[in-house]
Amino acid sequence: MFDQVFAQLRSIVCERLAVSPELFTADASFIEQLGADSLDVIDLVLLVEEQFDLQIPDDDYVHFATVRQAVEYIASHAGRIPELSDAAVGSAGAE
Amino acid sequence: MHRVVITGLGAVTPLGNDAQSAFRAAVEGRSAIGPIEFEQHPDARVRIGGAVKGFDAAAAIGPKEVHRHARFTHLVFGAAKEALADSGLRDAGYDPERVGCILGVGMGGIEVIAQEVRAYDRAGPRKLSPFGIPAAIPNMAPGMVAIEAGARGPCFCVASACASSAHAIGEALESLRRGSTDAVITGGTESGLNPHGLAAFERLGALSRRNDAPDRASRPFDRNRDGFVMSEGAAVLVLETLERAQRRNAKIYAELAGYGSSSDAFHVTRPSEDGAGMAHAMQLALRSAQVAAEDVEYINAHGTATPSNDVAETRAIKRVFGPRAQSVWISSTKSMVGHMLGGAAAFETVVAALAIAHGVVPPTLNLDEPDPECDLDYVPHVARERRLRLVLNNSFGFGGQNAALLLRAV
Prior knowledge:
The complex is a heterodimer of chains A (95) and B (410). Chain A has 95 residues and is an all-alpha fold. Helices cover 53% and strands 0% of the residues of chain A. Chain A has helices at 2-17, 38-52, 67-77, 86-93. The model of chain A is unreliable at 86-95 (pLDDT under 50). Chain B folds into two domains: 4-254, Peroxisomal Thiolase, Chain A, domain 1; 258-408, Peroxisomal Thiolase, Chain A, domain 1. Chain B has helices at residues 19-27, 57-61, 71-87, 110-123, 132-136, 140-149, 164-177, 195-203, 242-247, 276-289, 307-321, 334-337, 344-358, and strands at residues 4-12, 34-35, 48-49, 99-104, 155-158, 183-191, 232-241, 254-263, 298-300, 329-331, 360-361, 384-385, 390-397, 401-408. In chain B, helix 3 packs parallel to helix 6 (140-149) and helix 10 crosses helix 11. The longest helix of chain B is centred in the N-terminal third of the chain and has 17 residues, at 71-87.
């Protein structure tokens, strides 16, 4: 579950923030390592809501500080986890 | 009072994605107008426009920033980078606090506002994008260009509809003349070429409906003109004081020698029929450069191809030039590129500067049968060569807001 969400989130975040997938590690902070500002975090939360079919209350935005926190939050709240190719899941696990 | 010169040019337009190639296409008399390529409502009556093609917005503004901004900001970013590189301004060593950025934008990101309203109506306030407001506001164009250039001087947006970028360039000139700045990045941008922009201007009756012949639709001063053609684009100029430009051996295209600004105080969309307000702006531009009308060799007209503009502008030119109106060359760049709204006057100022630099005046396309009330020399169909010393550029916006800029060979 973690790996699948991780890979899906990596694809969303790296495209949106135009960062290299190598920077997208479990311990990376969205703001410190991935170059997001506070507006990007809101934007990413909206994309996550759409992709994973969930509603994220404003008070839960604090979970979008590091990649690990975000993945764990999504994994425990998601309405659905989008299908990913085996290759994408495999490379997520290799991180 | 400082003299002010143009040292850098940039343009992203339907005629070309850099200043020199867009100017060349204008001199060749090429039309940039074609069928609309995005989806429109079945009831839409206007299906032609001038689109910027082959412009890589993500490459221009960056793959992250491209999501955060509207098209008018993408376009101006491309033009600004070209103008900055062309001028060498980054290496000029100016105090960043004395470098300004003043751009004209008529409307801003109306496509973003439309998208955000749809999101709100569909799913409520929580689905609004955090980038909606920063993307839509017109002043984000100068804001982003200032960030790119590291310009920390005066930075704002001027809005006067189709004259926005003429007023922006004029205010940039005034800032330099009075010594508030050493250099100003100026010009303008707009993209009204989207379903809502087109439909809204169609509703005003402002647009040509010549859908079956797009390249013949924009026909300023012609008897059979039926409105302007919506297009999109941006143009940017770097202005500096003459003494600083000379001290650093900058390339100088022309002097920006005069600026006049006036209001018709008459009607929301129609110009005053006697052309008095337009004439007043031209007279003020001449006075501010301390030159006489008879010394002007070429007028880059506002020339929208709306029935009322072209007659009023012709009357205004007669008011200012008297008998000399018959011999001054006049042409409309919009006959080829369409109407870039907030970007129009900036591109026309680029054209005026390059007309001086290259000694050639682009033609008025599609002027097959002049309106009897438009009886001046509009340089029909074919460009003309001559050494130019003094060029006037007219721009008039909805609301009766007029601006004229005067360029002089250096």
